[in-house]
Amino acid sequence: MTTATTLRLPHGDYRPRTEPRTSGLGGPATSRTVFSAAHVVADPYADTTPDGPAAALDWDATLAFRRHLWAHGLGVAEAMDTAQRGMGLDWPAAAELITRSAAEARACGGRIAAGAGTDQLPPGPATLTDVRTAYEQQLAHVESAGAQPVLMASRALAATAATADDYLTLYTDLLRQAREPVILHWLGPMFDPALTGYWGSPDLDAATGTFLQIIAAHPDKVDGVKVSLLDAGREAALRRRLPPAVRCYTGDDFHYPELIAGDDPATPGARFSDALLGVFDPLAPLAAEALRLLDTGDRAAFRAALDPTVELARHLFAAPTRYYKTGVVLLAWLAGHQDHFTMVGGLHSARSLPHLARAYELADRLALFPDPALAAHRMRALLTVHGVPQ
């Protein structure tokens, strides 16, 4: 029988070692615009299969988690990668999620953005007209729901576009149609291999040129760009080339403290990144606390508060990066935000037991669990299910 020692699980008795974080709730940050991409809570009693429709969600728990994020002053980025978009969450479920979450945002005064993509297209070849029509349908749905659109990177477009001009033409058409400024979404291949070569070239310098050309054509229709390339230097260089009114929303779950803190304010042309981050799903209380420090202008205190979270973030987003959602949902369960550790599409099996155990340990060190005893009890139960002696 495999033992905890063989697995090298940290402090195998899983007694909580930290007191819970007790910082108060607060309003939105004033120095940065910050969204947390939010996970969805599966219905554990639904009779589903990994390749079946993903509409079986626990709506009460899913919406309650969004209220948790808003209560900490964070915006919600809905139906994004963190919500398993394209990895278990299909478009019908995403559309309902956007509608419900936008209504919840209106009820509690929370800020919400939502992903518009092309994932209603059937598998197989598509034309550029098909891709444009799919985008237009989802953009209309997001706008009618009352959420700010995020034009998500499209697998179908990556497979169909032959040149950078195809991206220029399609995105220019979409921006012209948008009622209000949108967020453009650049998700790197480490998050989704099907997006390799997005913006018309696998060369990132060439892709960046096309990306900037699209923004320059309609800067009044671009609120910001969400960049998830896990390359802090490239993101900093990109944000310096953006029009002054266009935000750079970091999606870099490895380097977010330094990117949000930004350039030294004394530096000519200093810029900083706002944020749209999956890692802020589990880090919401701590991230909100750090942002309040940044609001006072204390960049050093902000870094001191947020830098210690990077070890957990790098662990959750370790390769294969696209499976980070499993650790995010584990931590939500351990923190008491949901009653079970199951995911749509069976994705709770996408990470190993040692990986999950390490995520628990790192989160416990950060005092992320409101009830450390509950988290320890649930972690022990997970170990028992996997045959680890207690």
How would you sum up this structure, described in words?
The structure is a single chain. This protein has 390 residues and is α/β, with parallel strands linked by helices. The chain has 15 helices and eight strands. The protein has helices at residues 4-7, 59-71, 91-108, 128-145, 155-160, 164-177, 204-217, 232-241, 256-261, 280-295, 299-306, 310-316, 324-334, 353-365, 372-385, and strands at residues 34-37, 75-78, 112-116, 148-151, 182-187, 222-228, 247-250, 274-277. An eight-stranded parallel beta barrel has the order 1-2-3-4-5-6-7-8, surrounded by five helices. Strand 2, helix 3 and strand 3 form a beta-alpha-beta unit. The radius of gyration is 20 Å and the shape is globular. The model is unreliable at 1-12 (pLDDT under 50).
Poorly predicted runs of 5 or more residues? 1-12
Alpha-beta classification = alpha/beta
Quaternary organisation of the protein chains: single chain
Identify the strand order in the major beta sheet: 1-2-3-4-5-6-7-8
The rounded distance between the terminal residues' Cα atoms is 13 Å
Main sheet summary? 8 strands, parallel, barrel
The number of helical elements comes to: 15
User: Could you tell me the number of beta strands?
Assistant: 8
Strand content: 5-15%
What are the secondary-structure elements, in order, as H or E?
HEHEHEHEHHEHEHEHEHHHHHH
Tertiary shape: globular
Helix content: 40-55%
Radius of gyration using CA atoms only: 20 Å
Q: What average pLDDT do the residues reach?
A: 93
